[in-house]
Amino acid sequence: MQGDGINRREFLGKGAAVGLGVLNHPGFSGRVFGANDRLVMGLIGAGGRGRGVMQEFIQQGLPAGSRPPAPGAVEFTAVCDVYEVNLDLGIEMAGGTAKGYRDYRQLLARKDIDAVLIATPEHWHHRQLIDSVAAGKDAYCEKPMSHSIEEGAEMVAAVGKTDRIVQVGMQRRSSPGVIEAKKYLDDGTLGEVNLVRAEWYWNQTLHTRPVMREKLDWERFVGPAPRQPFDPVRFRNWRYFWDFSGGNMTDQGTHLIDVIQWFMGVTEPVAAVNYGAVYKLLPSETPDTFVATFEYPKFTCSWTLCYSSSFEDGWAITFHGHKATMEMCEAGFRIYPEPWKGDHFRRPEPAVEKLPGDLTATGPHVANFLECVRSRKQPNATVEIGHQAVRTLHLANIAGRKQARAVLAEDGVRVKV
Fold it and tell me: Which tens digit of pLDDT belongs to each residue from 123-164?
């Protein structure tokens, strides 16, 4: 839990290269698991989301009242975070005996760790995921997978050179309710779909909890981002600053655009336009309100977010088909046949209504990853899928910042504006 004395130049330059050389040593290859083998894991990023997903992992292999862990259980023996407050909370949630680290590479160097959960800010995902698979670890990496299109392509290539199992944390891919909804598009119930709308409405404020500066390694938090002075607002609200995130365009949008591309059988748009601004969450940089439009060969998709109004609170996706329309939200989905028999304030009875609730529950996605770690089959949200989902949102951010139509080149990496 103490600093290891490395400076920024060593960390971002020569030292990082040396670290990768060590992690590529053949001694760090992964092992084969039996059904009852205990999976030893490390947590990289022990903030609220990291601790929450870690708890899902622990619960998957721990029947109620079982102490010590049952056969086949998951145990976290290492936790890494640059903020000692989060580090201590993560160790406590892991059972109190896990070892704490401030440098994730020290965690990866441990031969006893089989897999890692990466839940750091997204500007760290590229380096940490590549280092993790190079160290022979399977990985569950939170979304958005990458901080840029180029980073995503490099991550896909790096994972492809290994036999490691990598799941990206887009949990709708494993949601029984979402999977059931997809069947209605597959069987033609909606007919041809020419318009899809993704929406997210919340009434949010910036986090203002104080930061205990003496417990934070700010330079290590900034990491691959440009050097900058300590700013508690940026630390608490990193999702709203370009150095650390693509904003809510990528953070929330990755979930929704992934479902849309999955359901519609496509992997990338032709082009995107986007307009947005910061109206409420000052001093944020990434827009708290925006409307993005994506061009696909056979349909148009819009993605709208507003963080100053909670009308229709939460997320929703609507597929407008020639035969019927499907609306989906956290509660489930409904299908309304054509022609529409209602108006804006009175909806007709749906032809199909499935409201199981909890469409974004993380448990099934974690279970899918653990099953694949043991079977060595590919998981529901591979790095290829994670890259394809967030690439579309990176394209929209480029369009918004350039104030131009952004076109994805044929190589899937370069962007023309």
Answer: 999 999 999 999 999 999 999 999 999 999 999 999 999 999
Sign for the CA dihedral angle at 106, 112, 117, 122 comes to positive
CA distances 163 to 116, 127, 269, 374, Å, are 15, 18, 29, 13
Please state the pTM of the whole predicted model: 0.91
Cβ 311 vs Cβ 292: under 8 Å: no
Q: For the chain, first and last CA: distance in Å? A: 46
Backbone angles phi, psi at 214, to 5 degrees: -70, -15
* Amino acid making up residue 56: E
Which residues, including other chains, have CB under 8 Å from residue 198's CB and lie 6 or more apart? 253, 256, 257, 260, 301, 302, 303, 304, 315, 316, 317
Domains and CATH numbers, the chain: 8-169 (3.40.50.720), 174-365+391-416 (3.30.360.10)
pLDDT confidence of 281, banded at 50, 70, 90?
very high
Integer Cα distance of 132 and 53 in angstroms: 18
